[in-house]
Amino acid sequence: MEFEGQVALVTGGSRGIGRAIALKLAEGGADIALNYRSATREAEAAAEQIAALGRRVELLQGDVSDPDVPRQLVAGVRAAFGRIDVLVNNAGITRDELLVNQSLKDIEQVLATNLVAPMLTVQAVAPLMMRQRYGRIVNISSSAASKPGRGQSNYAAAKGGLEAFTKAIAVELASRGILVNAVAPGVINTEMTDAIRSHGEDEIMRRLLVKSYAEPETIADAVAYLASPRNTYATGEVLHIDGGLKMA
Asked: What are the Ketoreductase domain coordinates in residue numbering (predicted)?
């Protein structure tokens, strides 16, 4: 129960990787603030699972691409729990299309959700963690940041920026006991990657050194380590969990 007494905020936590992360942290003893955008039924089901583990859970609905929402989320967590020890910026969207066919809206939405929202959420949570002189922040990137596929220019730009931000903010916060890292998943068995897997499975399998897709729990395990008190020395790092995809 290494997270006993801690509070974790997980964005985009109603399903997929976010849900697996929230459950993993709850299994370790953390109380959970679970943000979701619109999947109310899935979020409530996740909350029931967390509560069944004996942990307190609060559901916080909001679209993090709205620049007012990150601050509101952090204020809600502070009001409900009084502290935030772990932040996992997981919420993300894709709008894959060749750049020549991408609309400005698709570019802006991907950047707002995958890059700007994590920046604003860290900006809001940092003062709390600084006062505690403790915190763990994990940003969920993607193998697309270093090995993008066709039609992923907006997504790759956002995730590449997120990795650069991870390193920059690690420099700013380390002196206050706050460690900031990123995890970059490859192709994971989630609803978000269904289209990618269905349209290019042969190509993906050719590039993978480990000839299988990972489950969300694999990513949750990596996040849990970086978010835990056991991690005392890793900061500003990007941990690739991609089956060797970036090696191809």
From this structure: 6-177
